[in-house]
Amino acid sequence: MAELLAQHVSVYYGTNRVLEDVCLDIDERTVTALIGPSGCGKSTFLRLFNRMNDFIPDFRLEGEILIHDANIYAPDADVEELRKQVGMVFQQPNPFPKSVYDNVTYGLVLQGERTKAVLDAAVEKALRQAALWDEVKDHLHKSALALSGGQQQRLCIARALAIAPHTLLMDEPASALDPIATAKIEELVQELKKDYTILIVTHNMQQAKRVSDKTAFFNFGRLIEYGDTPAFFEQPQQEQTRNYLNGHFG
Predict the structure, then answer these.
(1) N or C: which end of the chain has fewer CB within 10 A?
(2) Number of domains the chain contains
(3) In terms of residue numbers, what domain contains 79?
(4) What CATH number did the domain enclosing 143 receive?
(5) Distance between CA atoms of residues 174 and 202, nearest Å
(6) What contacts 24+ positions apart, CB below 8 Å, involve 232-237?
(7) 3-state secondary structure of 85
(8) Order of strands across the sheet that contains 86-89
């Protein structure tokens, strides 16, 4: 069943159109990779699903974005509730200058949760899900900024998971990391899709091959091709896709 649905979506920043008539459906508990050259609109598309583009001046949307059949841009949509349901992990690890524990509980505390036993359990669960618990369980009250880059990114994933979203948006989550940390993030993505729907923007086509079930290729604001990842890479249907995969541009 499609959990996320884009129907005839166009996006404008002022008079500049950055996405044009995109239609895409994403099944629950799958990993979908969004690929394409810089400036093609893939990150803008990703951010539609938790309304992060709302913060950009002169942003305007045509078409509909549906999550569980509800239009998340409807006038009565609860944006705060949406962002609890759709977590986000950015390109650069961005832990808060707080302890590991306080980073993970940040969203829960913001929602009014104060019970120590509840917070303790949430911290352990989220850090285990992010494959970080064994590395930090004895350092929960030390600064998150003391962690390595790869650990910081997994902490940011734990922070997103702690508020129990159903969907995780990842905007090039491994591009700032070394190969070992990148491999851990990729393993983690594979593990998390058992419980979450994941959209991941990546410049790394090998990474898209390794982690995703489906791949969407964007170019000049248009969705050029979308399909099951093995077939997408082995037998692309569109000439633009073939040229991109063969390194002719991008």
Answers:
(1) N
(2) 1
(3) 2-245
(4) 3.40.50.300
(5) 8
(6) 233/205, 233/209
(7) helix
(8) 86-89, 167-171, 197-201, 31-35, 214-219, 222-228
φ, ψ for residue 225, nearest 5 deg = -155, 145
DSSP 143: B
Where are the extended beta strands (E) located within the chain? 2-13, 16-27, 31-35, 59-67, 70-71, 86-89, 167-171, 197-201, 214-219, 222-228
DSSP symbol at 52? G
Distance CA 7, CA 61 (A): 11
Structure tokens at 229: 């990842």
pLDDT tens per residue across all 250 residues of the chain: 679 999 999 999 999 999 999 999 999 999 999 999 999 999 999 999 999 999 999 999 999 999 999 999 999 999 999 999 999 999 999 999 999 999 999 999 999 999 999 999 999 999 999 999 999 999 999 999 999 999 999 999 999 999 999 999 999 999 989 999 999 999 999 999 999 999 999 999 999 999 999 999 999 999 999 999 999 999 999 999 999 999 988 7
Q: Let me know if residue 76 belongs to a domain.
A: yes
Contact 193, 26 (CB under 8 A): no
Taking alpha carbons only, the member of 75, 46, 48 closest to residue 172 is 46
Is residue 250 domain-resident?
A: no
77 CA to centre of own chain = 21
Q: Please state, in angstroms and rounded to a whole number, the distance separating the CA atoms of residues 82 and 180.
A: 33
CA dist list (Å): 131 to 137, 157, 193, 196: 11, 10, 14, 15
